[in-house]
Amino acid sequence: MNILFLAAEATPFAKVGGLGDVAGALPWALKENLPDADIRLVLPLHLTVDAARWGLRPLAAFTVAHRNGPITAEVYATTHRGLPVYFIGGAPVAAIHGVYSTDPHADAVKYAFFSLAALALTRYLDWPPDILHAHDWHTALAVHALGHYRREGAFFAPTRSVLTVHNLPYMGPASPLLLDAFGLPPANEASGLPTWARSVPLPLGLAAADAITTVSPTYAREILTPEFGHGLEDFLRRRRERLHGILNGLDTDLWNPATDPALDVRYTATTLTLRERNAAALRQQVGLPQPEERLPLLGLVSRLTEQKGVDVVAEALRLLADFPWQAVLLGTGEPHLENALRRLEADFPDRVRAVLRYDDALARRIYAGADVLMMPSRYEPCGLAQMIAMRYGCVPVATETGGLADTVRDLDLHPRHSTGVLFPEATPKALAFALRRALALFPNRRRWQALQRRGMAQDFSWRQPARAYADLYRRLTP
Ligand code: GLC
């Protein structure tokens, strides 16, 4: 079985968010379940990709048709942990410095070009994929184009497509002119798409995909409702039998408190008390006072966007001003949310540290030192931080939505099987109340440690999810 993976980002080559973690892990996890499969990953050659470090060698050059004249695609290749990885460069890719830009048009051109060039690459290699697995709006046009190519010729006739939705609201810009320039038609009425969606990349891909997946079972149900469906709920409900919710895994080698080189002290579930030394080191690093007695340390590790409920954290901590806690908040993102965290630090100078940057090592030290990870997401297709937190013995306090609802079991609802605290909606009051429940248990060391250990014992590895994808591929291909 030939499996072609397309994504905008993948660790370790380029990573902005959770999509990068998934695309950098799933192809390799699949290999273990489908040892005979030929799995290949294609990424854009972002200017930030370190060609020398990854040993990229030039492989091919060909053109992608465009109304203003053909655009050259330059393809580089490497082998990473046993799988071929291709990188596609060209003027539209080089027009943007990083993975994404703030100019929606430049992004749309970059990813339309990338999607079509990736399909062209398979023809160049004379390697027809059995499965095209695309991710998010960036590569959804490959699925749309495949639908047309399949009708036009024999090469792609056997290819079946899977489109994974990591974040439904990000659909890509509507671009009828762009589609036309790349020789792609918009969708018609028969697609079942609402009129506004017929030239939008993600919906076009969803209409053409043989299977649609999203990254947790709960989110797969949620997107069928007006609250989470962003206008596509009716369309998705009609495609329900093609829609699957498959929970993401976690790279358990990359995220392991027993081996993590970023930690001062490494530990396991049986040496949990060593976490206290990591907490002390964390406090020292960020400049929080060392408490005389055991004092709960709250953590936040997040992209600072509306989705993640960062504003909710700032308000909830104000509501809890009378309770004993300290907090370390890490992330970058929208300026008004960075400011909200800055203000919180200014108002609680001896209790709060806001570190507004991307810092992988500090993130790891927070998972290993903080007692609680706050995750008040407004919606969460899967979420990775809560799984990492549990693996590191840090107790998640999270909204009961999407993948959070599928991975965390609540303290009071499941006292003997609980792994964290869940609350119904991303509001300051609800988060504050949930944190109060956690803080009330914290002094009971024995029960707190039992909660931590249950979290650490969960299997969040890619084993199960990879099996689920492998089954799906098998069902799609004859
Ligand atoms: C997006 C979603 C997040 C998910 C990730 C990987 O970033 O917001 O919930 O975990 O994609 O699928």
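^ alpha-D-glucopyranose complex. The CA atoms of residues 197 and 203 lie 6 Å apart. The mean pLDDT is 97.
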